[in-house]
Design goal:
This protein has about 240 residues and is mainly alpha-helical. It folds into 2 domains: about 130 residues, Helix Hairpins (Orthogonal Bundle), CATH 1.10.287.1490; about 60 residues, no CATH class. It is about 80% helix and about 5% strand. It has a 3-stranded mixed beta sheet with strand order 1-3-2. Helix 1 runs antiparallel to helix 2. The longest helix is centred in the middle third of the chain and has 84 residues. The site of zinc ion has 9 residues, from loops.
Length: about 240
Amino acid sequence: MSTDIKALAQLAIIDAALKSTEEEIAKARTTVGALEQTIRGHEVKIVGQKTQLGDLEKRQKEAHADVRSMTQQLEHSRDKMNRSRTERETNAVQREMEELRKLIRDRENEIEKLNAEAKQITDTVDTETGALGQVKGELDTLHGPANAKLAELENDRQRQVDERSAIAKTMNQPLFRKYESIRAKRGSGVTTTTDGTCKACHMALAPQLFHRIRREPIIEQCPSCNRLIYFAPPEPPTAAS
Ligand SMILES: [Zn+2]
């Protein structure tokens, strides 16, 4: 076997491995990316709801402060009532107190509504936080191994890239460039024939071409798929078959 044929055979093996390594890297990144996106979605929701809850708490405090100050006013009115001398004065203070009691009731109703709203938001935040925790747990379970796998795959890729450039250096350079340009278009740059058909595109080679490449170790191109092609002798039958 010529050294170029040997190099091409090695390149084909490494490039096929490299392709599957890169596909696995892409898959591993997609898995990790999807989990991280889900987590971010939950986090954004939680932040939004906590802001809403903060606004509600501010309104609750204001309402409580109002109730306190109106209750104090009511005390003053009671004192005024005790000091009032005429019926007119007493009636006026009574109206004032009625008004205040009504205002206090309204504010207290409002506080109840705010409490209910706050409870609902707190429940939602709890649910979201629970879901976030669950996804985070899943991510942690997957993240470590996925990252380790990713690092391993990146190492594999680097090793394969180094290996292929070492092989490329030993090759006839125009041949290597041709291999690269065919590989870029077809996904693989080289094929073989054992019985006169191209193993990549399964088209029959012209008999003269097949005879020529079977006779001597030369590299040609498949007329159908353009891949570099050389003759591979039939595999000897194995003990198992
Ligand atoms: Zn072909």
